[in-house]
Amino acid sequence: MTVRGAREGDLGQLHDIDRLIFTDDAYPYFVLRQLLEVHGERFLILEHERELTGYAMLATTPDNQRHGWVLGLGVVPQARGNGYGRLLMHKAIERLAADEVAEVRLSVEPNNEVALNLYRSLHFTTVEPRQAYFGPGHDRLILARKLG
Ligand SMILES: CC(C)(COP(=O)(O)OP(=O)(O)OC[C@H]1O[C@@H](n2cnc3c(N)ncnc32)[C@H](O)[C@@H]1OP(=O)(O)O)[C@@H](O)C(=O)NCCC(=O)NCCS
What we know:
By secondary structure, this protein is α+β, with helices and mostly antiparallel strands. The chain contains 4 helices and 7 strands.
């Protein structure tokens, strides 16, 4: 299993696995295309023998606080429970540390126990609960971890 930056040729498979991972909440193809253009090497792809298995999408904010975000994280259902989500998060943190980000943030559904277990084991703590963060009925917890 390798982790590398996404390329244009990944778009088709990326779209397929995004729908497997996030079903109705998957990005439309055109949004994925735009995210790839914007995030470039900070769009991390998990790959095994040319099969895309998961991804982590990172960003840095344009302010002086040097915040970084993990905007998306997912592993296809059939590959879960093998340490790949943790691997992607390690690579994400490594990449954002190289960007000299002072703090990494992410949002998570309050009842997503699997993701919360992963993030807490990596020393993320809850900064604030946000109601309707992704629109009515879509509450999220904002988690953060300092770097450096
Ligand atoms: C969250 C997700 C990326 C985890 O990926 P994964 O490859 O299955 O995770 P890993 O095997 O690396 O496990 C990492 C940690 O997650 C937690 N975890 C994994 N599977 C779990 C389960 N079935 N129940 C409870 N906790 C679990 C554990 O803390 C685990 O660490 P450990 O193995 O040291 O105990 C994956 O479940 C996923 O894609 N889910 C759907 C999309 C999603 O919810 N993304 C996060 C959005 S914020």
